[in-house]
Amino acid sequence: MASVDTTTNAGQLLAAASGGRRRLGDRVFSRTAVLAAVTILVLLAGVAIFLLSEGLPAFTASAADLPEGKSFIDYVAPLAFGTVLAAALAALVAVPLAVAVALFITHVAPPRIALTLGYLVDLLAAIPSIIYGLWGIFVLGPKMVPVMKWLEAKLGFLPFFNGPASVTGRTMLVVGLVLAVMILPIVSAVAREAFAQSPRRLQEGAQALGATRWEMIRMTVLPFGKSSVISGAMLGLGRALGETMAVTIILSVSGAVTFNLISQANPSTIAANIALDFPESSGIAINALIATGLVLFAITLVTNMAARWIIARQEGE
Amino acid sequence: MESSAQTPSAFGVSPSSRLLASGLGWRRRGVNTMMTVLIAGAFVLAMIPLFSLVFEVAKRGIPGLSLEFFTEDARGVVGGGGASHAIMGTLIITGVASVISVPIGIMAAIYLNEYGTGRLRRALTFFVDVMTGIPSIVAGLFAYALFEIFFGPGIRLGVMGSVALSLLMIPIVIRSAEEVLKIVPNHLREASYALGTPKWKTITKVVLPTAFAGLVTGVMIAIARIVGETAPLLVTTGVVDSMNTDPFNGRMQNLAVYAYNEYRSPGVMKQAAYDKAWAAALTLIAIVMILNVAARLVYRRYKTEIR
After folding, report:
1. ipTM of the complex
2. Which of A74, B132, B145, B306 has the most neighbouring CB atoms within 10 Å?
3. B66-302 homologous superfamily
């Protein structure tokens, strides 16, 4: 940081000492840079202001005017429930898998191919969500039908697998799995970075004391990467909360509020509900959808800020 | 760092001496093997979706590909028709989004790395983080809300989609540009100042050329990230069957929305529509993969060696 300051000062000194044309060039360029920074802040303020001004009418409208004839809170609550349920399920599946993938790349796989393997994992993040949606409904969904039948038969006593098992595969469980694949690269990228930075001297010390590779990982790498894994998980959760197309395509929705993951009747999510209803809506229904978008924005914002806060706290130490 | 200070306590005296005394017991070796297998297995498990996805998209997409798919639009045809309007729309919407995002993003990164101090810098860093977390559908709603105020309800324009995508693209451009500007060594800047070069010329003639390959790579990755977006375009550019090349006038189709729409409303010739949805998916995946690979090649080929 200190070196940056000295160069800045040197630049200013020179600018002050040199002729007027130079100073003009410096002024124009630095003002353009500041302008770009301010534009971004204005843009974000615009997001908040326009969404609020278009969403507010829905908060105050009477229940009779709103879609489904419910008050706004009753309208958004099941959607928020579905959003959180799908994202939580995705994180539950993705986080352990992502940690294992990150460990494999940083500590188990031969270093020569590790970079290529990491690139393969990153490719998962590059695939557009619409393609995940098509894959989920045409490929993964049908494959999951017998699995869900089995879950219903063997674990039907649990509320999650209460059934009746869907015959199409358009269930919350399949959505959770697809979202898990989508967020896996995000979580594993954060974990990978932390694991790669874990101090070598501790790893070597552990192995010199006779620890096996797993013991070395468990005692030195995992404790070091713990808070990074948590923040990566939150970032992944934030991404899953806002994911739209995969859910829109795969999930068969009924508006039911249920923890049953394998049936045909599922709660929708905020994002999927907007994508499904927005093109055919008008008037106050549009305002209601924008208001649900605001709620979604608030939920993801809180999740992401928590993740950043964990990262910042860790860096501060 | 606290973690490094506390880890040695995990190697308290008694476990390590016991460890040395007993050698590698079968139980510890077994646990090690089991965990190694589990970790490697998890990696294989995570790769299955990637390969299945690429394989299925290729298998199902190829039957729908034809010359017609790339040259015809879908105006007034039942079952047949192509996706040229969607391909053109994708290029225009993404192009306009890049024209908006790249200058703002790179200038903002220059601000953060070369000029920024104090409160504005801190605010920008924080809000770029906030921006990366905006759900894509919310970006679409913002563009709609913005244009609705000026053009009335129900408005659908190509440029609205570009505005929505810019909101998603700008933070990606800033993050990657900041990253490459940061690794331009300070002694280059200092050498330039020592020759009496003003700061803005130092940035445009020394810093930016040094970082050029990285900047291009970052922009290409950012384009790859937004080119397949569906949700924000569904609410801003709408759905249309005919070619439209004017982003400021009327609805505009795009490949991702086209694929979604062919799946969602397949009409009477269901299989033909599904084939076209998969063909669009295959085209999209090809664009994304080419951009990703090209970005890495550009970086490897043209990056400046920094010593």
Report:
1. 0.86
2. B145
3. MetI-like (1.10.3720.10)
